[in-house]
Amino acid sequence: MKQLNSKCSLCISTYNWPAALYHCLLSVKNQTLLPKEVIIADDGSTNETALIIDEIRKTFPIPIIHVWQKDEGFKLAAIRNKSCAKATGEYIIQSDADVILHPNFIQDHLRFAKKNTFVSGARCMLNKEFSENILTQHTNPTVQQMLQHCTKKYNGLRIPILSYANYYLQQGIAQTKYVLGVNMAFYKEDLLAVNGYNEGFTGWGKEDNDIAVRLFMHGIKIRVIKFGANLYHIHHKGADVKQLEVNDLLYKQTLANKITFVPKGINQYI
């Protein structure tokens, strides 16, 4: 039986792509170190997603908690708050359902975890043809196969000694500009201290930068992990960015006013 970490919850956001979610969960099942639970943050998917979750639960080694909200447009900030509120682990690793996790993803994150810090990681992008091939299979490709069919290949390489060296090269508030919500980790107490995600962000973009900069201004330092905690992004069409300009303005207000605690956040669900 695989080792399980009783202090870690994995939160995975999804919306109406059950085939990708299936492969993401397969990669969780294949981790060298398992979290205590997986929480699916579902931003209004149809019942097909629930059916996939029910099916994979039958052979899954840890609990899967499905947190669903009504489809009222892109409300990722809200569903992440709801899912993190449900997490029973003191440390929360966050990702999305359109990725395949490296087998050492959880292990690397937990090795990198440190009090009074949060972590931002990277991703590499699988090409369209290979991604379509993955979605027709019932098993995931190996890391070596994915590295042969991706861009930003350096983001897919796991070299632990370089991951620690990289940390000393990428520090400070400037790094919050480049965080990716698909690969982040926090202590739950730190999320609560800034009231989680700002639900004023709707539509795609900037909600992850906003929480990162608020954590930083609250005194929680950022640790950037590369050459570890790798994940491989399944190709799909680009996001709808029509709300990006509004969200960018909201993010800039956070910076200008040094806002750390938001009024509408995770405390609604605690």
Structure description:
The protein is α/β, with parallel strands linked by helices and 270 residues long. It has one domain (3-259): Spore Coat Polysaccharide Biosynthesis Protein SpsA, Chain A, CATH 3.90.550. Helix content is 35%, strand content 19%. The protein has helices at residues 18-29, 47-57, 76-86, 105-112, 128-135, 143-147, 160-167, 188-193, 207-217, 244-257; strands at residues 3-4, 8-14, 33-34, 37-42, 64-68, 91-96, 99-101, 117-120, 124-126, 150-151, 184-187, 221-224, 231-233. The strands form three sheets. The protein has a seven-stranded mixed sheet, sandwiched between helices. A four-stranded mixed sheet has the order 7-13-9-10. A two-stranded parallel ribbon has the order 1-3. Helix 2 (47-57) links the parallel strand 4 (37-42) and strand 5 (64-68). Helix 1 (18-29) runs parallel beside helix 2 and helix 9 packs parallel to helix 10 (244-257). The model has no long low-confidence stretch (mean pLDDT 94).
